[in-house]
């Protein structure tokens, strides 16, 4: 699991906005994968400790008090892991069955341009390993380039946090860029579901989930995929 190391995002108006990983996307994914017996390592650019987005633990972010308590409790249980993640530069695709990118707006700040992540994703894709991304984590795919310098996942079917969702419950026009539109511009084939629906799109070894509501279904798809490869 590759997490953003960013805690700030520069917005379209030049101001900065606190950010981080979205708690539900990390917690729900880890619960599903580990309940099935999967071993999951956490990695970040430079091995920095990732920051949880405060809004993902708050009703301001559409998170109920009960859910926020659950997410906090799980993050406290695994506190040693995000305290010392693997440096992304040292991660090799050959060591893993899958690479998973959860969201929160933070990936827009670093993972979308991270050369180490781009190398890792192109390695994983070339080897037929599962590449999974969720919500704004799909922005991390933009770091991957093919031999011609183009977007490595051009022509592939996927979903992401949609422009409609960004306007309804995201950063709106303050967002640095609308992820769905950017992916379309780069040549991806977007197949979004209804706003805030649990939507997962699989194209071969590429699995993408649309939003936090898709966290569990995306993780379940990752578990099923290696056996079907």
TrEMBL record:
Residues 207-229 are annotated as: Disordered. It holds the Pfam family DJ-1_PfpI. Residues 23-224 form the DJ-1/PfpI domain. InterPro entries: Class_I_gatase-like, DJ-1/PfpI, Prot/Nucl_acid_deglycase. GO terms for molecular function: glyoxalase III activity. GO terms for biological process: methylglyoxal catabolic process to D-lactate via S-lactoyl-glutathione. One of its GO terms (cellular component) is cytoplasm. Keywords: Lyase, Stress response. Residues 207-218 have a biased composition (Polar residues). Belongs to the peptidase C56 family. HSP31-like subfamily. This is DJ-1/PfpI domain-containing protein.
């Amino acid at each position: 699991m590759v997490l953003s190391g960013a805690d700030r995002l520069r917005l379209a108006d030049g101001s900065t906005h606190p950010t981080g990983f979205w708690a539900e996307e990390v917690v729900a994914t880890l619960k599903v994968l580990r309940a099935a017996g999967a071993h999951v390592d956490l990695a970040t650019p430079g091995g920095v400790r990732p920051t949880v987005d405060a809004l993902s633990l708050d009703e301001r972010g559409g998170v109920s008090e009960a859910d926020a308590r659950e997410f906090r409790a799980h993050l406290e249980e695994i506190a040693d892991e995000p305290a010392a993640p693997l440096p992304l530069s040292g991660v090799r695709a050959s060591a893993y069955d899958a690479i998973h990118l959860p969201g929160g707006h933070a990936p827009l700040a670093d993972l979308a341009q991270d050369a180490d992540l781009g190398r890792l994703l192109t390695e994983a894709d070339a080897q037929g390993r599962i590449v999974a991304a969720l919500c704004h984590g799909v922005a991390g795919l933009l770091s991957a380039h093919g031999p011609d310098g183009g977007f490595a996942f051009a022509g592939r079917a996927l979903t992401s946090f949609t422009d409609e969702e960004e306007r309804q419950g995201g950063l709106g026009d303050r967002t640095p860029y609308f992820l769905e539109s950017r992916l379309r511009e780069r040549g991806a084939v977007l197949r979004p579901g209804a706003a805030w629906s649990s939507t997962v799109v699989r194209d071969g070894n590429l699995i993408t989930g649309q939003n936090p509501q898709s966290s569990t279904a995306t993780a379940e798809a990752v578990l099923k995929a290696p056996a079907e490869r």
